[in-house]
Amino acid sequence: MTIDVRPASDFEDVRALLGPKSSGANVCWCLSHRIPSTLNNELRGPARGEFVAELCRAEPPPGVLAHDGEQPVGWAAVAPRSETSFARSRRIPHVDDLPVWSLWCIRVRPGHRKQGISHALIAGAVEFARANGAPAIEAYPVDNGDARVDLTMAYAGIRKNFERAGFAHAADTTSVLAGHPRVVMRLGLR
Q1: Helix H or strand E encompassing 136
Q2: Minimal CA–CA distance to 48: which of 73, 20, 71?
Q3: CB contact at 8 A, 74 and 109
Q4: Which of 25, 105, 149, 154 sits 20 to 30 Å CA-CA off 142?
Q5: Residue 115 contacts residue 64 (beta carbons within 8 Å)
């Protein structure tokens, strides 16, 4: 398997990974941290997908996709922190005033897990942020030690995967996900 990570500008590929089986369903579409909560609550059914389609046409697109050949097999949401709810978070602290980018969601398609795709997505997100001028990139994974993390709550990533990618612990948080504390992990890009 050869994994190719590229910007998420193809909406159909994003839909394959994030979209609902039923077009009227109110799935996340990875919008809960990207947009203000009021707008997130107002967007219902197909309007959520239409919003994501607009993001895919924007520069930069809303993240990166991992492909095995032409098949999309993974997603990572990455954007300037100032454009996310993390800019206003009381639970995820700001380390300093550097205009960092945030990497907050990693999703690997069922049937493709345990093949290194999340590692490729982290590396691809780092390069995407670097190519778009980010001075540093942060992630807010769970610090689970050796404990198992429920797959539905593993979207934030796990600390050891970010450590393997060169990120360093930058701060503790008061955020907890699936019973595990979250930490701020950071990687300088300059």
Answers
A1: strand 136-139
A2: 20
A3: yes
A4: 25
A5: no
